[in-house]
Predict the structure of Tetraacyldisaccharide 4'-kinase.
Amino acid sequence: MIFLRYILFPIVPFYYLVTWLRNKLYDLEIKKSISYHIPVICVGNLSVGGTGKTPMIEYLIGLLKEDYLVATLSRGYKRKTEGFQLADNDATAKSIGDEPFQFYNKFKKEILVAVDADRNNGIKQLQLIDGKPEIILLDDAFQHRKVKAGFNILLTTYSKPYFKDIVLPTGNLREPRNGSKRANVIVVTKCPKNISDAEKNSILQQINPEANQHVFFSSISYLDHVISSNTNRSIEGLEDFTLVTGIANAAPLVHFLNEKALKFEHLNFKDHHEFSKQDILELNKKELIVTTEKDFMRLKQYESLRDKLFYLPISITINDEVKINKLIKSFLKTKL
């Protein structure tokens, strides 16, 4: 796959030109973006792959849900439905996608969860329902420029920052690096917890933010227990188990479990893997399965796995939560 990417390098300038031109047309308002009176906060990235959008959306939900009626709006990647869908008690990972289903399972009594590939239509539909939201969080919509979000949060990982990457197909960027200028906030995610001030300053210099942009650093925190559909277990008490992951980068999770000196085998699938009947038959043979929360949303439907399937929750820690929270709430005051 890596070799193929290098072979396709001659295509890179064409991809760059097409995406640059598309953005330029929006910047010049030749192509139209729609703004809304309702506050719209977008969380996204420049690159393909996992940058930590789901934990960031959950962070925002936790910050806002006590004071506002919040809705999340996602594409619903790999769902089996089409058009606008508002999550309800019949929702599954297949009907709305695994990440939106995760939001719904965790916060269903406190927020609205919707999916629509057409974000403008999704916003319009949300505003038509009874009990319409006061704030909409757009999940993975940084390149969806038909919507002009009021506040853009751009994520980039510590290990693979956008400023050291190039566009597809050889690199991982969906658009040129200068797309980062649209962000109000840039968060460098999945940082080591002991990242030094010198390293932060070095990254800041490479990002070279605009005067109106703010840069933050976040790290992942794993909880000290795993959760099933009906019980919790301490990580320290886990013995020989199977780790099942279908995410973009499982390395941080594997590193955490290795640091705990736990004994496990790792079944590593591609991101958003659709578990087949054969996969489930193989998993049925395992005595204890630990997975990510996102994968748990797809696997928990199988009754045969219910008593052996657990997920390890995560949260994020941001280096200056007071400042980022103040920026977000200041934006809301201008819209509400």
